[in-house]
Amino acid sequence: MILLTKLILAHLVGDFILQPQSWVEEKEEKKLKSLKLYFHIGIHILLMFLFVWDFSEWKLILSIAAIHFLVDALKLILQKKKTKRLLFFIDQLLHIIAIVVAYYIVSDESINANELITENNLLLLTCLLFLTIPVSIIMRTIFSKWNIEELTKDNESLEDAGKYIGILERILVFIFIITGHWEAVGFLITAKSVFRFGDLKESKHRKLTEYILIGTLISFGIAIITGLVYFVLI
């Protein structure tokens, strides 16, 4: 397993720490004609050899490097302005999958699906998934009785920022609860209250204040109840 960790570490260093933004921009402009693309792959090869420090693994290292090149090349060819963000995450996911698959093919270790797909793991995944989009839809349905657009029309904010903030805070609350750190839940509520206090003070809008308070309490309440249900079921 230490070999897999070293390979992933080499990827993180090569893709994020030792890849200047100027290289990324040149690759996006010149695509496969960019020398920086090939320098980038060369750095990955050197890092893997350096971190692994075992030349008997050269087939594994070169295989990962070849797949890395193909994924990067395909990304550069397909990338458009609208798909840049999506392809970034797909690109990173494919790199990690390639490293893991190559490692298990070459090594004597095997993935035991029975150890991964357990009742507790499935329950944990279900709870985390529930706290994302499903709860967002539930909360939107609850607030549908009020004209939310009218309340927030004068408040500038990033598109869908509230939804993502809600998802992140619910997941954090859930993690804090199942790990037994209830004090962190209080800290998170306090931190959010501090950030929101300025907006509420400046708005002088009682309905907006009530909307934010209700939303916060429902969001935190659902996350807390989900955490407690998880405890009971396991």
UniProtKB/TrEMBL annotation:
InterPro entries in UniProt: Phage_phiKZ_Orf197
TM spans (from-to): 37-54, 60-78, 85-106, 122-143, 171-191, 211-233
Alphabetical keyword list: Membrane, Transmembrane, Transmembrane helix
This protein's record includes keyword Transmembrane helix: yes
Keyword rRNA processing set for record: no
Protein name: DUF3307 domain-containing protein
Species whose genome carries this gene: Microcosmobacter mediterraneus
